[in-house]
Amino acid sequence: MRTININGTDHQLDVDDDMPLIWAIRDIVGLTGTKFGCGQALCGACTVHLDGVPVRSCQTFVGDAEGAAITTIEGLSGNVPETVQTVWAEMDVPQCGYCQSGQIMSAVALLAETPKPSDDDIDAAMGGNLCRCASYHRIRGAIHEAARRLEA
Ligand code: FES
Ligand code: FES
């Protein structure tokens, strides 16, 4: 039995230590905002925060996540996440939307760490989040706009 904390709530899971965290989040706990893409830490669709740090939940395992605070897209709260999500909606960033919870999780972690990111900072932080709809230009603009609003 493993206890993992997701969005502030402890969940006792009868699973193997090497179960990818994404399946615990989606299939057992039932939070489906975190998406499965490649399963190989290559696309970023499954990004969640572990103690505030973005990780790929398809290649993070339940045994590694015990004792950490896991945050999914459903559990984001506070000024930075709320500003990011507001700007995302206002600027119509998503197209199909599939990659977007992962994009937002990475963008929130970037702005929490680097309040005024340069284009290079954005490239470094977001480079692992792929978007087959090529929303990259809007993502970059939305991160800059969120930074402006958070600074004001
Ligand atoms: S599904 Fe995890 S990085 Fe692609
Ligand atoms: S919005 Fe469609 S994959 Fe990114």
From TrEMBL:
> Which Pfam family is an annotated match for this chain, by its short name?
Fer2
The source's superkingdom equals Bacteria
The organism encoding this protein is Albidovulum aquaemixtae
What broad class of enzyme is this?
A: oxidoreductase
Q: Which InterPro entries match?
A: 2Fe-2S-bd, 2Fe-2S-bd_dom_sf, 2Fe-2S_ferredoxin-like_sf, 2Fe-2S_ferredoxin-type, 2Fe2S_fd_BS, Beta-grasp_dom_sf, Diverse_Oxidoreductases
According to UniProt, the name of this protein is: Isoquinoline 1-oxidoreductase subunit alpha
Query: What does the UniProt keyword field contain?
Result: 2Fe-2S, Iron, Iron-sulfur, Metal-binding, Oxidoreductase
- Give one GO molecular function term: metal ion binding
The 2Fe-2S ferredoxin-type domain covers 1-76
The Enzyme Commission number assigned here is: 1.3.99.16
